[in-house]
Amino acid sequence: MTLSKLPYKGTRDLFPSEKRVQNFLFEKMHTTAQLFGYEPYDGPLLEEVDLYRAKSGEELVNEQIYRFIDRGEREVAIRPEMTPTLARMVAQINREAPRPIRWYAIPNLMRYERPQKGRLREHWQFNVDIFGGKENLAEFEIFSLAITLLQSFGANASHFEILVNHRKLVDCLLKDKMKLSDEVALKLCKLLDRYKKLPEAAFLEQLNVFNLSKDQEGLFLEYLKLNSFENLQLFLDAHQIGSAVWDFKTFFQMAKEFELTSYLHYDPTIVRGLDYYTGIVFEIFDKHPDNRRALCGGGAYDRLLEIFGEKPLPGVGLGLGDVTLKDFLQSHGLLPDMSRPTNDILLTFQLDGGMAPTMRLAQALRAQGVRVLTTLEALKLNKIFPLAEKRGAKCVSILDDQELIANKVAIKNLKTAQQVTFDLHDLGAITKFIMD
Amino acid sequence: MTLSKLPYKGTRDLFPSEKRVQNFLFEKMHTTAQLFGYEPYDGPLLEEVDLYRAKSGEELVNEQIYRFIDRGEREVAIRPEMTPTLARMVAQINREAPRPIRWYAIPNLMRYERPQKGRLREHWQFNVDIFGGKENLAEFEIFSLAITLLQSFGANASHFEILVNHRKLVDCLLKDKMKLSDEVALKLCKLLDRYKKLPEAAFLEQLNVFNLSKDQEGLFLEYLKLNSFENLQLFLDAHQIGSAVWDFKTFFQMAKEFELTSYLHYDPTIVRGLDYYTGIVFEIFDKHPDNRRALCGGGAYDRLLEIFGEKPLPGVGLGLGDVTLKDFLQSHGLLPDMSRPTNDILLTFQLDGGMAPTMRLAQALRAQGVRVLTTLEALKLNKIFPLAEKRGAKCVSILDDQELIANKVAIKNLKTAQQVTFDLHDLGAITKFIMD
Question: Which H helix or E strand runs over B127?
């Protein structure tokens, strides 16, 4: 029987050229989180399904989750998102932990969905959350962190924007102003969530199914047209939607103080699919015309800990996937070429007798922090240079009979073309030459 | 309904103090792999069960694997080990990739087993493999890499040893010399694997079940007593087990040349449970009397690619788990205290008016690479220092009415107790003071 060489549907084999890119993304995530004082955490790959049933919403549990019964008759799921695990962990230390709690993680997650651009069944997601922070300040810290991360790749306000909305505003509009029932409001909310993915005609057709009255539809379409914070302010005033729903004036004032207005835009269609958001919700959107999609989403939630019998603790978080981030960077030419490895030196020998001294030199150099690639057999001179190029080696060594007899080694820097012959035991000088 | 706060059985919630330790282990793994020119890779969390059925052995597939049927009727498993995925990936690039192929990964893996010390249902494992390397040289490179990793934590030959055996030698003994059938040989092999875990009497009792003849048992017990390379040499000579089985003389000669004899020891009970090994097999054993267990295992394999219709390609690999590594380091006091975070500065303000300038200073400092933790509300002077200590901050800032009026900020280094007042906009001087 011959087995398939291909990975499971919707997942990736990360060969070195791709894994180097992913590691590059991960390193920037770690560095950025640490710049903001966020502490790392991680949780289990499997959780009991009840955890998601309680918090993630029916759609995710019924259709998108990998779940099964384990040998101990527990109903478990591969984590499709990190927030429920985070909530479970924070519930454990909630009572004694000083505020705010600032945590981040980069877990691998799985969702059962039809693979498409930017959506795979398995991806890694940068999760950043702050609990117990002051309202607005916590939100702006999360925005700043996301912007700092994207800036670290060379991106700026010409490449991406943060589209913002508020769950309470949507709730107030649908329930208090349009007088829809909870059930109908939820359905309309889901339609709102798909607004950007549907052609205008298809959206209107689906809206028709709701059989809204003329007043209801008028209000909804007026809301849908809001495309700036200035418009929003007029709308809030006209319909007497006050600061209890969204303390919008403070929010906008702080956006100015923090110099974030060039990144932040109001978008009435941002609602986020997950059931737990209760305040600000946002998506970071790619501005590139070929990649108009969200690369990051998040928002504020109040009651994530309630299911564990804990008091409400306000939190704000974001999730940013490695696939969507990579697509974003690629679409703007912001991803460096990582198709080749990098090594400090390719250590070679031309005669079998050179093997043992080469291996000892390799070990000695590694102890100095030099990244040494060795050949495991004698290599002819004319083969050294193409191999060094392929393996991204900065220097090569030559150890032929001449050098062997004299206990020497010749080392050439391929960038400067400088070649120097060293005593085999002069580790300091060799290291300095390679690392300079 | 109140949900449990505890993680799924046999898995870990990694709170920041534990996750910092894991990240510390991961960083050393990355660094060491790169010192040897190994390239990173990763594969999917799920694989089709047939992959493990073909290579990992029946015990693993039947008893230890998390498997289920997905919504597309595929029989899939959460990866219990990385080697089969690695083999599948190498099979894809085998024909064009230059030799040797040197790859490493640090995947999370799951096995269904009874949780006990050093064995959890989920762990992370450092996997290092070399394909197409010259025999013995490839093995010694893997040994050197493992030793270099453990040395980077401060460990040496007084803390651990590498116990070595050879699969062909065991095969030759059981089948050619003792004349056991394949099936009986396999069972005796499994008993050998458990030798160290069983009390002597229990081992002998289980050996009795095999009903060995006097000659067979004599030979087996003679083999079991081998406890050094010198003993082994005598045994190989006495029973005319030649270099076709194990080119032991070359192996031993190279161990001397590479100065590895203080780490390497012969152990007749090392066989490794997984079915794919065909050559050298080894385990790295903790020498601490309280933690006599393997923290790493590996070996050489020839035919991993055959199931994909590819020609044999010799490989050598190791797997080292994060749980066993941590236990090892802890048992020898080699794990630094990471219970607290580290931050460069805790940026605080004493009056509400200090918030906006503080947030702007925070962003400016982060752009210089300073790790800045801010408070999200005004903090009284006497609360700064205990908080800074708890959060591992090297410096703190003071921004009271005096400073606010003058557009200044006072910064104190908590280690040196030096305190200097800076102009709020003198970013260079502030950064230098904090980072010095």
Answer: strand B122-131
Residue B278 Ramachandran class (φ > 0 left, ψ -120 to 50 alpha, else beta):
alpha
- Strand pairing category for B39-40 and A419-423: unpaired
Count of Cβ atoms closer than 10 Å to residue A302 Cβ:
14
> Nearest residue of B to residue A51 by CA position?
B3
Walk across the sheet containing A343-347 and list its strands: A372-374, A343-347, A393-398, A408-413, A419-423
Q: Is A311 helix (H, G, I), strand (E, B) or coil?
A: coil
User: With contact defined as beta carbons under 8 Å apart, do B75 and B48 qualify?
Assistant: yes
This prediction has a pTM of 0.96
Tokens of A243: 């600061």
Q: Tell if the CB–CB gap between A40 and B19 is shorter than 8 Å.
A: yes
Taking the C-alpha atoms of residue A25 and residue A27, their distance in angstroms, rounded to an integer, is 5
Q: How far apart are CA B434 and CA B20, in angstroms?
A: 23
Q: Which among A20, A71, A356 is the nearest to B112, CB-wise?
A: A71
Count of CB atoms situated within 10 Å of the CB of B102: 26
Tens of pLDDT, residues B314-347: 999 999 999 999 999 999 999 999 999 999 999 9
**Strand B75-78 vs strand B108-110: parallel, antiparallel, or unpaired?**
unpaired
**Structural domains of chain B, ranges and CATH numbers in brackets:** 16-331 (3.30.930.10), 343-435 (3.40.50.800)
Instruction: Sort out which chain B residues have CB atoms less than 8 A from A1's CB and list them.
Output: 50, 54, 307
Q: Token pair 């689906």 is at which residue?
A: A206
- Do A307 and B2 make contact, defined as CB atoms within 8 angstroms? yes
Nearest CB to A122: which of B35, B44, B355? B44
B276 pLDDT more than 90: no
Amino acid at B404: L
Residue type, B304: L
Q: Distance between alpha carbon B10 and the CA centroid of its chain, in Å?
A: 18
What burial class does residue B194 get, using C-beta atoms within 10 Å of its C-beta: 0-12 exposed, 13-18 middle, 19+ buried?
Answer: middle
Q: Is the pLDDT of residue A78 over 80?
A: yes
Tokens of B5: 């706060």
Nearest CA-CA partner of A120 in B410, B203, B338, B46: B46
| pLDDT of B59 over the 80 cut | no
